[in-house]
Amino acid sequence: MKIWVDADACPNVIKDILYRAAERKQIALTLVANQFLTTPASRFITSVQVSGGFDVADNYIVEQLRPDDLVITADIPLAAAVIDRNAHALNPRGELYSKENIKERLAMRDLMEALRSAGQVSGGPAVFGARDKQDFANALDRWLAKY
Prior knowledge:
Low-confidence stretches: none
Oligomer: single chain
Structural class: alpha/beta
């Protein structure tokens, strides 16, 4: 089992939680981004820099992951692809995506994108806060307890 991180947009506080979890549980953690990443020196933590471009990091993760791996991402289409590959996806705000909820999340994402394009809705997600950090840490701990 391995943990993959869609690292370009992942908050640093979430990366810090993941670094500690990888060391504590001795689990391989790989961060994938289209920019250079600095990670702690660890035999469990690696990073991969992919070329720039739309969905390059996402595609790399999907190609590399194995069933039962965990992917940390807020990207709904990536989460859907992860689930299609019989792996797991966890949002940095602590929501575990599943076969039961991913279609609803995709539909909501598409609706919001259409509303934004039509000028009906503006803005993005709420500011990432302490509650989100705690929700993520709790969800990660629950997931790791299963493995």
